[in-house]
Specification:
The chain is mainly α and 312 residues long. It is built from 13 helices and no strands.
């Protein structure tokens, strides 16, 4: 396929407005899924909730992988695929553990440090060069997390550490995804992520399983459907619009999470959580801006020119 025809296809599928709407829908769905999962932690073990969620995830991934055929499911990098799968399931489990003792708005706020952690991890794992501006944005984002968690004060919640660990797992998963982007099919990655996580959870399930009531089982299935639907909406959104366009709208999840936390649990974030959230959002948006600048500069660099030795 020629570069001209590829550009024409891309132009035909580009629809930023629809992409933004898909992204906003995804954040709403994720907030509903997270809130429902938090509600279930009062009566069901976290591992059991996530296991049911992954059962839906495996079915969803299987449907997406079906058109490619069985031959497409074997990856070129099995070790990286397994590591990514462990990171994703670890992120999900740790996040829900964190929500048991935290407001959903706080937990969601801390989860948005993942883009900043990607900046740190991209240096040793991808060989990227990070300049002073992105380091400053990363430091500011970490300050925002400290403000939300407030260690050393009466308002500190140890559950915030689960949120940080969850974000670190997710950031590592995304860096691995970048590393495999040019060699692996997205359907292959999705299937391996779903199956590896499901296997880990199945091994752990007998140690914690509690027979759920029918209403709780149905709610757990809703969590799985919502989480899988959210992932699919993200995929659709990124087919319609560039990631740099969609990045600012992902932070709307904090609005929906705050509303859901108030509606279901009667919780509203305090002023320090709002201040920390504002700092994390600002640093994340600046990091997304720098990524867009770097990508634009890379496209404009003449063929054969090496990567810049230092970010502007």
């Amino acid at each position: 396929m020629s570069a001209v025809s590829s550009a024409a296809e891309r132009a035909a599928t580009d629809n930023p407005l629809r992409g933004i709407l898909m992204s906003l829908a995804a954040t709403t769905v994720f907030a509903a899924s997270d809130t429902t999962a938090k509600y279930l932690t009062a009566s069901m073990p976290v591992i059991e909730i996530i296991w049911i969620r992954y059962a839906i995830f495996v079915l969803f991934a299987g449907l997406l992988a079906r058109p490619a055929g069985p031959h497409a499911l074997w990856p070129r990098s099995p070790a990286l695929q397994l590591l990514r799968g462990l990171c994703v399931v670890g992120s999900a489990v740790l996040f829900v553990f964190g929500t048991r003792s935290m407001q959903i708005a706080q937990a969601s706020t801390i989860s948005f440090i993942s883009p900043l952690l990607i900046t740190v991890l991209s240096i040793p794992l991808l060989g990227e060069v990070v300049g002073v501006r992105r380091w400053a944005a990363t430091a500011a984002g970490m300050l925002g997390v400290v403000i939300v968690a407030r260690p050393g004060t009466g308002g500190f919640q140890p559950a915030a550490l689960f949120g940080v660990a969850s974000s670190a797992c997710w950031a590592l998963a995304l860096v691995i995804t970048r590393k495999m982007a040019t060699t692996e099919r997205s359907s292959t990655t999705l299937m391996w992520t779903a199956c590896s996580g499901a296997i880990v959870l199945t091994v752990l399930l007998p140690f914690v399983v509690v027979p759920p009531s029918l209403p709780h089982l149905l709610l757990a299935l809703v969590v799985g459907v919502l989480a899988s639907a959210g992932q699919w909406l993200v995929v659709l959104a990124h087919r319609l619009a560039p990631a740099s366009v969609l990045a600012p709208f992902s932070y709307s999840q904090l609005i929906w999470a705050t509303f859901a936390g108030w509606l279901v649990f009667g919780n509203l974030p305090d002023e320090w959580t709002l201040v920390g959230a504002a700092i994390i959002i600002a640093s994340g948006l600046y990091t997304a801006h720098r990524e867009r600048v770097r990508a634009r500069d890379a496209r404009g660099r003449p063929a054969g020119a090496g990567a810049p030795t230092r970010e502007a």
